[in-house]
UniProtKB/TrEMBL annotation, chain A:
Protein name: Glycine cleavage system H protein
Keywords recorded for this protein, A-Z: Lipoyl, Mitochondrion, Transit peptide
Keyword Transit peptide in record: yes
An example Gene Ontology biological process: glycine decarboxylation via glycine cleavage system
Domain Lipoyl-binding positions: 53-135
Cofactor mode of binding and number, as noted: Binds 1 lipoyl cofactor covalently.
Automatic annotation (TrEMBL), chain B:
SUPFAM superfamilies with a match to the protein in the record: Class II aaRS and biotin synthetases
Domain of life: Eukaryota
EC number of the protein: 6.3.1.20
MF terms (GO), sorted A to Z: lipoate-protein ligase activity
Name recorded for this polypeptide: Lipoate--protein ligase
Enzyme class: ligase
Domain BPL/LPL catalytic, residue spans: 38-225
InterPro entries, A to Z: aa-tRNA-synth_II/BPL/LPL (IPR045864), BPL_LPL_catalytic (IPR004143), Lipoate-ligase_2_inactive (IPR053264)
PANTHER family reported in the protein's UniProt record: BIOTIN/LIPOATE A/B PROTEIN LIGASE FAMILY, BPL_LPL CATALYTIC DOMAIN-CONTAINING PROTEIN
UniProt-listed Pfam families: LplA-B_cat (PF21948)
Keywords: Ligase
Keyword Transmembrane: no
């Protein structure tokens, strides 16, 4: 539905008849999974804070919209991440897409399985597809992130707007 | 900046930069710098690279994609670029068109690969309307079943680039430097390069293609010309591009890997 709406407006601007617009396959699904207990960034990354370590990955919504992930570019352990800044990238459907950290801190572990099996991000975005573990330098940053309900609404509104 | 940004009829501004014969590595460096450090929209058109270069995507492995022995013997440069996607060999017959956009200036398009690809296909549908049976097929630009353009993207939080190397013409012998990729679209049906690709020159002249592309961009943006020299000099800011030339040592090491 969303794809047809933007296609129609772009087609109008280009003065194409809708009969010539490309056929769109239906959206793969309308509702991606969102887990309670995690915090979410508006750039579609999640963070799970347990004790002194926070685990970070991309959400089910993000992996669904990205398509099959074929390559993951991750930083080295020991480096640092800054809130809302890119720390790596994923490749899918001929595109590299930045992955941004929801919080600041020191990288204490990187998911090395993703180099051989990047598809874990698609099949298990919240579990086996985790990307980095960070020691937060400013835990209060977590408070500004969205909870599950807020993120669910955010995704619905974003999809509806396009 | 806000008043410059929205010009005619409320359309966002896009700077058109026309170049000719600029080396592809230099073009990639300028593009990545503009993507990461500029807040403007850009359309970069390079009418032909200076000499043959092989350009792989960010995850490209030369052992899988390139016939390394003849590449080394013939001194063909191999570049790994900052965007995703596959491998192309470009030369003076290639026309490059790149769109670098703020996601908010293309607000109808979600900043993900498939919506961006579909947006580009609508633009090029207008370019080729009445000229050829153009379509987007499994993420490739084709006339019928033959690919004539390789495209790729890079998406940041607030901006994205979609760039294409259009095969206006090509040297058939250059295709022999490329292997059949392991990941290929279904419609390719295991065809080798010469049976899979086709030159645009059979359908449209270089100048018509470029002017029609600028016209199509002008329907979505308020376009203004910017001189290449101005872009080249302003791109020397504190930015380190990630596209790079692979060394002979790297290619030789790759040739030792059993596939």
């Amino acid at each position: 539905m969303a794809l047809r709406i933007w296609a129609s407006s772009t087609a109008n601007a280009l003065r194409l008849s809708t009969a010539t617009t490309p056929h769109f396959s239906p959206l793969s699904r309308c509702f991606s999974s969102v887990l309670d207990g995690l915090k979410y960034a508006n750039s579609h990354e999640w963070v799970k804070h347990e004790g002194s370590v926070a685990t970070i990955g991309i959400t089910d919504h993000a992996q669904d919209h990205l398509g099959e992930v074929v390559f993951v570019d991750l930083p080295d352990t020991g480096g640092s991440v800054t809130k809302a800044t890119g720390f790596g990238a994923v490749e899918s459907v001929k595109a590299t897409s930045d992955v941004n950290s929801p919080i600041s801190g020191e990288i204490v572990e990187v998911n090395t399985k993703l180099s051989e099996t990047p598809g874990l991000i698609n099949s298990s975005p919240y579990e086996d597809g985790w990307m980095i573990k960070v020691k937060p330098s400013n835990p209060s940053e977590l408070e500004s992130l969205m909870g599950a309900k807020e993120y669910t609404k955010f995704c619905e509104e974003e999809d509806a707007a396009h | 900046m806000a008043t410059r940004h929205v010009a005619q009829a409320g359309r966002p501004l896009m700077n058109i930069v026309r170049m000719k014969g600029v080396p592809i590595l230099q073009q990639l460096e300028i593009e990545e710098c503009l993507l990461r450090t500029s807040s403007d929209n850009w359309c970069i058109i390079n009418d032909g690279a200076d000499k043959p270069n092989i350009v792989m995507g960010i995850s490209g492995k030369p052992a899988e994609l390139v016939e390394i022995k003849p590449v080394l013997e013939d001194n063909i440069p191999v570049i790994r670029r900052f965007t995703g996607g596959g491998t192309v060999i470009v030369d003076h017959g290639t026309i490059f068109v790149s769109f670098i956009c703020n996601k908010d200036d293309v607000a109808d398009v979600q900043p993900y690969p498939r919506p961006i690809m579909s947006w580009s296909s609508l633009l090029y549908t207008q370019v080729f309307q009445g000229i050829a049976d153009f379509r987007l097929r499994e993420n490739d630009f084709v006339f019928g079943l033959r690919k004539f353009g390789g495209n790729a993207q890079s998406i940041t939080k607030n901006r994205w680039i979609h760039h294409t190397s259009f095969l206006w013409d090509y040297e058939t012998r250059n295709m022999s430097y490329l292997k059949l990729p392991k990941r290929a679209p279904e419609y390719r049906l295991a065809r080798d390069h010469l049976d899979f690709v086709c030159p645009m020159k059979d359908y449209i002249s270089r100048s018509d293609f470029i002017s029609r592309t600028i016209d199509a961009a002008g329907r979505l943006f308020s376009v203004e010309s910017t001189e290449f020299e101005a872009v080249k000099s302003s791109s020397n800011v504190n930015f380190t591009p990630t596209s790079r030339l692979l060394t002979n040592q790297e290619l030789e090491a790759a040739s030792m890997i059993a596939i």
